[in-house]
Specification:
The protein contains 8 helices and 11 strands. It is of the alpha+beta class. The radius of gyration is 31 Å and the shape is elongated.
Length: 265
């Protein structure tokens, strides 16, 4: 994980500094004085205060509302500039004084001998993903006559489409577990085709590929299963990916790549 706080601060500074310069230039040409607004029911009267100590000011005629608008704009921009200036000073302190080594990378700076003795409390994205992938589990067994498809990670999968997805995830650098067991409410144990790790947020996203949707029996079972996913909090587009195909509409590498690009960018 990059030093996200500094990255956010620097991005914010890039927006605020031009705004500060713009406000400074605009205020130089703004009219002198401040605006006093007096409310009477649903109508307003505007007064121009130019002298120190004057709390009333001179009323601005209705035919000179441009002056009132210019004064109101000036007051707004003056306060906005003050707020922007305070935020810039704070953000500059953050970018200047924030630790050189992000907490997530501190463990990596230790010597090999010390790493053997220390249990890291904060992991980098790479270390987190490596630890996540090392979790041991027992997936579903394969029938003796099932076709044998092996991924680039030398994992056995059940179909050419799953092979396509697995290899695409690997090439995109997305960590995944194949058929990792998951308990669904009122349904029991299921084995999602892929449980993927979003390294940016360190959250899990399951990917179910429904491969025979032109079969009425398969489609009915798939709908039932997806409904139980929904009841258990797995929502497509949030923490779940659904892809599907039928005999006349096979899954393509283009579709798989598009899904990965959109979900794990």
């Amino acid at each position: 994980m990059q030093d996200s706080l500094v990255v956010i601060a620097e991005a914010r500074l890039k927006k605020l500094k031009p705004l500060y310069a713009k406000l400074t230039a605009r205020l130089k040409s703004a009219p002198v004085g401040i605006l006093r607004v007096l409310t009477r029911g649903r109508s307003f009267s505007y007064y121009h205060i130019t002298k120190k100590g004057d709390t009333n000011g001179k009323i601005i005629p209705k035919n000179n509302q441009k002056l009132a608008a210019a004064l109101a704009q000036r007051d707004y921009e003056k306060k906005l500039k003050q707020s922007v200036e305070k935020e810039i000073r704070l953000l500059e302190k953050v970018t200047k004084n924030y630790r050189k080594i992000p907490l997530e990378q501190y463990y990596e700076t230790l010597s090999a001998g010390r790493k053997r003795l220390v249990e890291p409390l904060v992991l980098s994205d790479r270390e987190f993903a490596e630890k996540w992938q090392k979790v041991s589990y027992k997936g579903k067994t394969f029938a003796s006559d099932a076709p044998q498809y092996y991924t680039e990670n030398n994992e056995r999968v059940r179909s050419k489409s799953e092979l396509m997805i697995a290899n695409a995830l690997k090439r995109a650098g997305v960590p995944y577990r194949y058929e990792f067991p998951l308990e669904l409410k009122e349904f029991g144990t299921v084995y999602p085709d892929f449980t993927c790790l979003d390294s940016n947020t360190r959250t899990e996203i399951i990917w179910e590929h429904l491969g025979m949707m032109d079969s009425p029996e398969y489609a009915a079972a798939a709908v039932k299963k997806v409904n139980h996913y929904l009841l258990s909090g797995y929502i497509p587009g949030r923490n779940m990916i659904l892809s599907m195909e039928g005999s006349g509409s096979p899954l393509s590498t283009k579709i798989v790549s598009k899904i990965i690009e959109e979900c794990f960018a």
